[in-house]
Amino acid sequence: MARTILIADDEQGIRDSLRKLLEFESYRVILAEDGPSALDLVRDELVDLVLLDIKMPGMDGLEVLEKIHADHPELPVVIISGHGTIQTAVDATRLGAFDFIEKPVDADRILLVIRNGLAQRKLLRENISLRAEYRRRTEIVGDHPDIRAIMETVHKVAPTNARVLIMGENGTGKEMIARALHELSPRSQDAFIEVNCAAIPEELIESELFGHEKGSFTGAVSRRIGKFELANGGTLFLDEVGDMSPGAQAKVLRVLQESIFERVGGTESRKVDVRVIAATNKDLLRASEDGSFREDLYYRLNVVPIQLPPLRERISDIEALVEHFLNITAAELGQPTKKMSRAAIDVLRDYSWPGNIRELRNLVERLIILAPGDTIEARDLPEFGGAHRDEGRFFDVETYGEFKDSVEKEFLERKLRFFGHNVSKTARRLGMQRSNLYKKLEKYGIPFKSPRDEDPDDA
Length: 459
Description:
By secondary structure, the chain is of the alpha/beta class. It has 18 helices and 14 strands. α1 links the parallel β1 (about 5-10) and β2 (about 30).
């Protein structure tokens, strides 16, 4: 499909000569003789590049440029002027012009500028598309009260430089929360650098974080830039921070306190502006008490704590998560989008999800590829799901009373999880007296919210 070039110039001769040149090069050309007409065409047509005269009656080119750039920042605008000055070129560049060409126009020069402008537009549109796709893939999905509260915290703390400690089991989405904090922050245009502290050998973690000088240790054959420097101006995400070595902990603490560090083997202090977000699946408070994690570092990292619930405690979000993963996974794999039947959803709700959201996403990906038909049925699911998952556990008891208790306990646990641990709502939905449900929960040792902690809207 031919690219569309808009020529906006009040001189008939200039418009005609440029039109002939560009049509000979197989471009589609549309014409405007003044600023308002150019703005109308940009609004109504799919324009790929604008050639804009700077001196036009009524509305000059700089005013038109400013309006185009405000509404279409990805659209390249090339300014053409017969009265070019350095100041005019500076003003045009400041307002977003892609390039500046003086009259009389050189054919080879303008064709080169057009090719470069179109290439930049293509890259910008691809970048916008990729960022939109990235945001879709990292979207936080769910309407469980805990997730709503977490996202409220994320939106409040993201615009600040406050450090955040994200806690939760493996697969609960800690990295996604960290990326959301970055994307919603003033640092979003700068780097988001991730370090998995558990995946790096203890002897290399300091080099990974702070870099090293050539010859500082065996194997250091050249200088290396560390993650703190790479993240300068942006966000550094320390995943599984509880696995960091004591030596690295001390250096990280210094960076958090003073914003300076030295590379391994170096003597020059380097200053950085980095926001640190940390995540862990461990109890760092307990680790600080037993000496395996620095207490002062724990409190430095834990300015704003975020505790992510495991998937088994937000079963009400299963359906929304499945739909989300079905859509994005089908697009990634180039497969037709599938649906999941109500019976299959019910089976997934009945599973404990030890691998959390990561396990659910992996399952959906497998089903997109292997399940026959357009709808995923319960029979397509693996043997983990549904009542057939591990029924044998009910028969490992000695008496009928024990059997009844084990079934009742699991039934109440699942229903309480489904209703967000809200006893009032659970009792109402089960047709039980709330006092009776409290007695049952206490009997089986099932944790629940106290009445004052329950959402009054859900009571």
